[in-house]
Specification:
With 154 residues, the protein is an alpha+beta fold. Helix content is 25%, strand content 46%. The chain has three helices and seven strands. The chain has a seven-stranded antiparallel beta sheet, covered by helices on one side. Helix 1 packs across helix 2 and helix 2 packs across helix 3. The longest helix has 22 residues.
Length: 154
């Protein structure tokens, strides 16, 4: 029998973007805009990205190496305040194995002519398949990709 375990962790990542909160919110909430930065550009396997951005709506992002298991992000939007806050819960799967379950909050705050984004994630990392440091690193890389996407459309 497999040894079962859970590691709980909370992390906070902050980023400043030289774009108004409405533009950052658009990049987070519009399916085509989000796909530009949320999909893995180095992934040889086309990703699946579906997004129904509304309270109770779902988002799925799946992808992985051509001959390997697929990572799947399954999210449900819990709370949305346009241009200010997005709260969602999500599970991460590797193949058919659930590796974590999280609650994430994105806050957008005006900062000069730009936006201060604060992402807080509370996660349960399951059975040693994932860990908080790896998730925090990956989430930070996604927020950097968001920043690059915002700069490209500025």
């Amino acid at each position: 029998m497999t040894e079962r375990s859970v590691v709980h962790s909370t992390f906070v990542i902050k980023r400043s973007y030289p774009a108004a909160p409405a533009k950052v919110y658009f990049a987070l909430s519009d399916p085509a805009a989000k796909k530009r930065w949320f999909a893995d550009p180095d992934n040889p396997m086309p990703s699946r990205h579906e997004m129904d951005f509304r309270v109770g709506g779902k988002e799925v992002n799946a992808g992985g190496p051509k001959d390997g298991s697929i990572y799947t992000f399954n999210a449900t939007y819990q709370d949305i305040v346009p241009n200010e806050r997005i709260v969602y819960s999500y599970e991460m799967l590797f193949g058919d194995t659930r590796i974590s379950v999280s609650l994430a909050t994105i806050e957008l705050r005006p900062e000069g002519n730009g936006t201060r984004l604060v992402l807080t994630e509370q996660g349960a990392f399951l059975d040693g398949h994932d860990d908080p440091a790896t998730r925090e690193h990956g989430t930070g890389a996604l927020l950097d990709a968001l920043g690059a996407s915002l700069a490209a459309v500025a």
